[in-house]
Amino acid sequence: FSYDVVPIQSSVVICSCPHPSMVRNQPDSCSPLGIPGASSSHCPSMDGPTSESRAPGKPTSQGSELRQAPQPRKKRPEDFKFGKILGEGSFSTVVLAREQATAKEYAIKILEKRHIMKENKAQYVKRERDVMSNLDHPFFVKLYFTFQDDEKLYFGLSYAKNGELLKYIRKIGSFDETCTRFYSAEIVCALEYLHEKGIIHRDLKPENILLSEDMHIQITDFGTAKQLSSDSKQARANSFVGTAQYVSPELLTEKSACKSSDLWALGCIVYQLVAGLPPFRAGNEYLIFQKIIKLEYEFPEKFFPKAKDLVEQLLSLDPSKRIGCEEMGGYDPLRGHPFFETISWGDLHVQTPPKLTPYLPAMSEDDEDCYGNYDDLLSQFSSMQVAQSSSSHSLSTPETIPPAPQRSSSNIEQYIHDLDNNSFELDLLFSEEEKQLLLDKQTSGNPCPLWW
């Protein structure tokens, strides 16, 4: 690893959605990292002014000596007191840390250099650094500084004290209409800002929406985000990333994502805030994908009518027909949807969020199938069947159904055990017989016991 330290250019970014009072300056005392694998050690989006600066009012002539701009001292691990682990990813750990000199708290993301290189993840680290350095909005986790030692990279992030939105969905079951409206509006506001900067998040989901100390959203995890090229008409990103329940159909059929793909994820999240579960659920990614491309989902009986209409307009198989996309007039029609009629858009960031109030019973903590517990899929289906009733789904153990044949070396089982939530392999290399086996195992109901 070899890095050059580059100061972030001081700038002010104004969002068209929130009030101008929400504008913040770029990170202070910031030492971004040049991640290996880039064509240059300097990130174009983070290049500050040249280190040679001219004295005000004194034009320099050729050959005259120029003064060197002072550089802030690089931060070091010993500058911080590290505390509890806030979260762990596939190649990073986020730890609460207090800066000794200022007593400020940060969420510091720590990445092992050796593991990054071994897993070929340098491009994801660089992408996250580049994108976050370009964001300045209260509804996003803020990157304040980066530094390194011989073995690790460190990202100093704003600390969202109340953790993941998903935690609250699971705890209280689902949000009432006021809460759903408020948090959906904040996500809309954040996406408008992001898309105006030509950035697609590509992995928007409740796990990546954190809540600050005052319970406003802070979107995080930009390792799979895409900065669309500014010098061309590029509107799509062609790599396949995301999480199964929130993946857009165009990513499955065309292997490309666009800004409208984030609007699809927004529709899934609005649905989940009301229903307590995402709209597309099944025992494994393959079956989830089948439901997505067929637009196969249902609304529970008590779903708020205006929220239902909004979700239907967001979950369109045609990305150019989703409310909020450029082809449909942009974000004005989305913000003007009847579901948001009571929202004051200009000052969302300073409003007091409504108290989280449950609307329907909480989902059982054991219902992990809806969130990616795909192990032993075939044996699960061979020992259980879904018994449907008018109000719920329950699991029973049939005595007369013969077990499915055990195929320890089948491609299906290998796929199930090799699942990676951050990267999907579209060409599953299944035979038609094996695909049919999976589909046959899918019942008309959902394996998760739901309140409806």
Rounded to the nearest angstrom, the radius of gyration is: 24 Å
Q: How would a crystallographer describe the biggest sheet?
A: 5 strands, antiparallel
Strand order of the largest sheet: 3-4-5-7-6
Helix content: 25-40%
Contiguous low-pLDDT stretches (5 residues minimum) are 1-16, 19-64, 362-429, 442-452
What is the topology?
Blueprint: E1 52-53, E2 67-68, E3 80-88, E4 93-99, E5 105-112, H1 113-118, H2 122-133, E6 143-148, E7 152-157, H3 165-172, H4 177-196, E8 199-200, E9 209-211, E10 217-219, E11 226-227, E12 236-237, H5 249-253, E13 257-258, H6 259-275, H7 285-293, H8 305-314, H9 331-335, H10 377-383, E14 385-388, E15 393-396, H11 411-417, H12 432-441
Antiparallel strand pairs: 1-2, 3-4, 4-5, 5-7, 6-7, 8-11, 9-10, 12-13, 14-15
Helix pairs in contact: 4-6, 6-8
Structural write-up:
The chain has a five-stranded antiparallel sheet with strand order 3-4-5-7-6. The model is unreliable at 1-16, 19-64, 362-429 and 442-452 (pLDDT under 50). Among the domains are: 77-157, Phosphorylase Kinase, domain 1, CATH 3.30.200.20; 164-229 and 236-359, Transferase(Phosphotransferase) domain 1 (Transferase(Phosphotransferase), domain 1). It is 26% helix and 14% strand. The longest helix has 20 residues, at 177-196. It starts with 51 loop residues before the first strand and ends in an 11-residue tail after the last helix. Helix 4 (177-196) packs antiparallel against helix 6 and helix 6 packs antiparallel against helix 8. A hairpin with a 4-residue loop joins strand 14 (385-388) and strand 15. It has helices spanning 113-118, 122-133, 165-172, 177-196, 249-253, 259-275, 285-293, 305-314, 331-335, 377-383, 411-417, 432-441; strands at 52-53, 67-68, 80-88, 93-99, 105-112, 143-148, 152-157, 199-200, 209-211, 217-219, 226-227, 236-237, 257-258, 385-388, 393-396. It contains twelve helices and 15 strands. With 452 residues, the protein is an alpha+beta fold.
